[in-house]
Every structure is written in C-alpha cells, then in structure tokens.
C-alpha cells in the first residue's frame, strides 16, 4: 500500500512506501538529499551511504530531475523542514529515468515557462496555486449546498450573446451561426424561475483583445441566480460568499499560502460586511485625487486600483449609469439613469472579481431595451417569456474564479491560476 506525503504525519517512526518524482537532489558524497513530490506535497528523503545497500545508493545516484520512483523510508519529524517531516530512505525502485528536464533551477522567462506549462505545473509554486484553486472550487460547492441552491449547467454553445457582441467567439453549428458562451446568466434566469435558487459553474469565453494581467480568453465563472431576491440581498449573499471562500482557504491551505509567501493578515480581514460606495461617489473620489474621469465613463484598471486602495476589504461599487452596463439590469426606481447593480473590487489591485445586478422583470421595459440594444427579438424570444409567465424580482451575479484565486494567492498575473491558460496569442499547450 502506498502512503501519500500529505498523510505522512500519521506515520512518524514507521516505514512507508511512496510513489514520487524527484524534483531536486543534493549530495555531500556520504549523504544524498532527495527532494521528492507526489502531488499531495513535498518531502526530503535522506540516504546515508553507510546505512543502505550499495544497490540502493547507486539507484539514487542514477536518478535525474523528474525521474519517477517508488521509495521506502522511515518517517521522522523534522522542525527545519517546511512540511515538518523527513524520510530516512531505506529502498528505492526507479520507475522511469527522466530525460534531461528543460525547466532547471535557473530563472526562465515567462514565454519559455508558458511553452512548457504542461511541465511547469509540477513546480512547488504552481502546485500551491492549483491546490488553492481546487480548495476555492470546493468552497463554492459547499457554500451553495449549505444554502440549498441547485447546481444548473447552462449550455456552452449558444445562438445569442449575454454580455455584448464585441467579445463573441463565433463557431458554426451545422447551418447556423453559434457562439461560445460569455456567461450562462440568461439561462440561469430561466432556471431560477423553475428552481428558485440556482448556481452554475463553468467555462466562459471572451474574445477580448486585452493583454492585461487580469484577462483570460477562457475563464471559469460561478453564476448564482435567485428568484425573489432584490439588489440589497444580492449584495449580502455576495459578501457572505466571498468571505466564506477566503476563510475556507485560510483554514485549509496554510501550507500552500506559506509556500506562496502570501501575507495572510490581509486575507484574515476579509469578513462580511464589505464597504459600499456608489458609482457617483467613486467618480468624485477619483476626481478629487486628480484622475481625469467624467460621470458616464467606465472605470479602467488604474481607477479600480485607486478605489480599492482606500479600503482594506473588497469594496462594492453600486448604481452604475445604465448606459455603460448590460441591457438586462434593472433601473433604480429613484433614479432610472442608474441601475441596481454592483461590481465587487478586490483589494491590493486585483480588480473586479464580481459583476452582478437585479434584473429587469417588467416585460415592456425589457422590450424597450431590446430595441435600444438592437437585439434580435427572435433569438431572444424565450428570454422575454420569463417576463410573461409569473415574472418576479430576481438577481444574480458572476464571480470570476481565476481573478479570485489570483487575489487569494497574491499572483501577479491570472495566467498562473488556471492549469492551461488561453491568452491572446496563446493556444499552446
Ligand atoms: O462582469 P461580467 O462580464 O458579468 C457577467 O458576465 C454577468 N452575466 C454575470 C452575472 O451576473 N451572472 O463578468 C463577471 C466576472 C468579472 O467580475 C470577472 O471576475 C470575471 O467574470 N471576468 C473575467 N475573468 C478573467 N478574464 C476575463 N476576460 C474576464 N471577464 C470577466
Ligand atoms: Mg463586469
């Protein structure tokens, strides 16, 4: 039976057998230090020449970087090691001796690493990020399960756009034109009218010509949609959701956060409620600080960062002008020039992680929006039906998984937060 490195603490003083890769090796002539990994963690194996059979010593010497092997050894507690344990190696069975590994200890450029992404993900840093990504995914499912939401899967191939036509990926659907989904929202609204409270979690696609540290072409989005929920309650669910995810990662991923040198004090503080400002207040704030931005213009990354710097938690910016937001957002009854929406801006310059709103539930207003936005009434006919048969106030939002993981991990670029990033000019590997 194989043990895993993550479980090794239960076997102190015992002999265990592990299936591992060698990611680094050092030798003093009489002792070999093998840096081993198995996906669940990292551990150092120590071989003392005088204490092992010559065959075992030679087998260890022949191991190259990224060779695979079964290793047998006795687990020791070791305060100096990050994992807290060390393995006194007693036997080695090489499985495959790796060819000369392209990723070495020297610094590599980003393009080189991206070309070798299939290997780069084996590194300690990437393992930490991908394991935190996995924990965030777990947290998402647990949060909604605890609250009785249904998981619903909207289609990926769609005849319409949800978030404007400029970033659509076109494809052929037999004789019809189709697009890859930018957002499952419109379908989730239909699902909310059937099931009440629902969430989706899937890949979304945006043909965005942006080459920034926040943009991916293919990214994963969590989209809850809730019947009988207004703007206010929507915000409360969002702040609870984001707090839950961050606290979940703090509880379950201490080792990984340490490996990433993440300042966790900043994350500890992420607890609901979050501060809220209106779009108009944000514009005034920026103007006072000398930014050249006028009411009615959308925020760029520098604006979002400048606003985020004023708060030590994520901040909601609410009530944007209707003119710069999506067609489905409900106007504020007090001032119909603005809509009942919010973007949630992460601290430390990570930008917008959530976009959400209350939706228009009035048939006539929705029809008017179709005309203003030149939406093909035939293609969107079914969406109007939701306003014809038992329309109710409802709200929802979309959380970008990669931006959230990037913020929690403190990565400089979202490309590290997804196993195989699709970026402008990159479809390989
Ligand atoms: O603000 P967005 O465009 O909102 C929607 O798509 C709504 N239909 C969601 C809803 O209400 N159901 O996108 C939501 C989030 C953003 O806040 C951001 O975190 C992420 O998705 N996002 C991206 N992440 C990485 N790369 C991109 N190109 C992204 N575009 C949006
Ligand atoms: Mg948005």
Automatic annotation (TrEMBL):
GO terms for biological process: asparaginyl-tRNA aminoacylation. Keywords: Aminoacyl-tRNA synthetase, ATP-binding, Cytoplasm, Ligase, Nucleotide-binding, Protein biosynthesis. It comes from the Bacteria. CDD domains: AsnRS_cyto_like_N, AsxRS_core. It catalyses: tRNA(Asn) + L-asparagine + ATP = L-asparaginyl-tRNA(Asn) + AMP + diphosphate + H(+). Residues 130-429 form the Aminoacyl-transfer RNA synthetases class-II family profile domain. It is an enzyme of class 6 (ligase). One of its GO terms (molecular function) is transferase activity. It is found in: Cytoplasm. Pfam families: tRNA-synt_2, tRNA_anti-codon. GO terms for cellular component: cytoplasm. Its EC number is 6.1.1.22. Homodimer. PANTHER family: ASPARAGINE--TRNA LIGASE, MITOCHONDRIAL-RELATED, ASPARTYL/LYSYL-TRNA SYNTHETASE. Belongs to the class-II aminoacyl-tRNA synthetase family. This is Asparagine--tRNA ligase. The gene is asnS.
